[in-house]
Design a protein that fits this description.
- The protein is an all-alpha fold and about 190 residues long.
- It has one domain.
- Helix content is about 70%, strand content about 0%.
- Helix 2 (about 15-30) runs antiparallel to helix 3 and helix 8 (about 120-145) runs antiparallel to helix 9 (about 150-165).
- The longest helix has 22 residues, at about 120-145.
């Protein structure tokens, strides 16, 4: 399902509709509330049409730093640690044959594709708890209810909650009690 979310959080392309339907179908079985968020996004996206959806993506994610979908930026800002974090991600992507395409390695879509490739275990848990969860939380806070993309992020938030525990833990920068230091610079 992470691959579908990666497509939904990428610049809109024709495959967004297939990924959206796949994500709704998968979520409806296990996380009906997440499916409802995705259905709300679908309604808005269909009403907007392709060109307006592209404009909305740019307005939501590319015009303001506080809503940029870059995990490293959301965690570190423009601090030097973001560069080290991106270099670590790039090395891990290379080991698994994951392409960043035209995005920076800390773009949520690329990190989610990496997550899809990982087997369950400490590294996947760390990526969710110390990287994706805080980034999603911060982007959600920045966009609020100003964009239908908030529905996609809310659905993703619900899908990553099991490794993080309850909602109060999700509010922390890291939702795991301790880092395993696979990425030693993560807070």
């Amino acid at each position: 399902m992470y691959e579908h979310f990666a497509t939904l959080l990428s610049y809109p392309a024709p495959d967004i509709w297939r990924s959206l339907e796949g994500t709704i179908k998968a979520a409806s079985r296990e996380l009906p509330e997440a499916a409802e968020f995705l259905e709300s996004f679908r309604e808005s996206a269909v009403a907007l049409g392709p060109a307006a959806l592209e404009e909305l993506y740019i307005k939501t994610f590319e015009m303001r730093a506080d809503s940029a979908p870059y995990a490293g930026h959301q965690i570190f800002g423009e601090d030097w640690r973001r560069g080290i974090f991106m270099a670590g991600l790039r090395a891990r992507y290379g080991a698994l044959g994951i392409s960043e395409g035209q995005e920076l390695p800390d773009h949520l879509s690329v990190v989610l594709r990496y997550l899809e490739a990982l087997e369950p275990g400490p590294e996947k848990d760390e990526m969710i708890g110390d990287c994706i969860a805080p980034a999603v939380r911060k982007v959600l806070q920045a966009i609020g209810d100003q964009s239908p993309y908030g529905h996609v992020l809310d659905a993703l938030r619900l899908c990553i909650m099991p490794p993080c525990g309850d909602e109060s833990e999700f509010e922390e920068t890291s939702c795991r009690p301790s880092s395993l230091s696979l990425f030693p610079i993560l807070p």
